[in-house]
């Protein structure tokens, strides 16, 4: 598969915007982290909103799929993606990736986003997903973090979900 990589990399710099977008779409679905730096650079630098969204989505997807990175390294990349996301829709894309990370830092970061009403559903989903993954290796920390969340949420369903998760975390 990787023999297509140099070709697609060239297409990213095409004068034709449709070819650029097609290359971005192909790289976003890449099975490993090969295009990570290119997607990241485009997301950081492009003025074109469609290219920005595609590059950001691709960057998040290939980082999550990268089996050579530690969970902490993945978190660092996803946190960066959040910082370069423009607008709520792009932040939601990043939050869907954040939920797949098994990292205490990712959990703390998700909790810090709870005051953003526009992202609340995605934030809650990320918190539950991360906490579930994390609870096996860090039961004490996860329990503390979830109890912190219970102090700041008023969403009944979310409270129920957290309490169910807390019941399953070994003491």
| Overall body shape | elongated
In sequence order, what are the helices and strands, one letter per element?
HHHHHHHHHH
Portion in beta strands:
under 5%
Q: Tell me the number of helical segments per DSSP (H or I, 4 or more residues long).
A: 10
Oligomer: single chain
Structural class: mainly alpha
Count of individual beta strands: 0
Q: What would the average pLDDT be, to the nearest integer?
A: 93
Q: Biggest sheet, in brief?
A: none
Low-confidence parts, pLDDT < 50 over ≥5 residues? none
Q: Alpha-carbon distance between the termini?
A: 46 Å
Question: Could you explain how this protein is built, in words?
Answer:
This protein is mainly α and 171 residues long. The protein contains ten helices and no strands. It has helices at 5-12, 17-28, 36-45, 49-65, 71-84, 88-98, 104-112, 120-134, 139-152, 156-168. It is elongated and about 55 Å long.
Short description:
The protein is an all-alpha fold. The chain has helices at 5-12, 17-28, 36-45, 49-65, 71-84, 88-98, 104-112, 120-134, 139-152, 156-168. Helix 8 runs antiparallel to helix 9 (139-152).
List keywords for this structure.
171 residues; mainly alpha; elongated
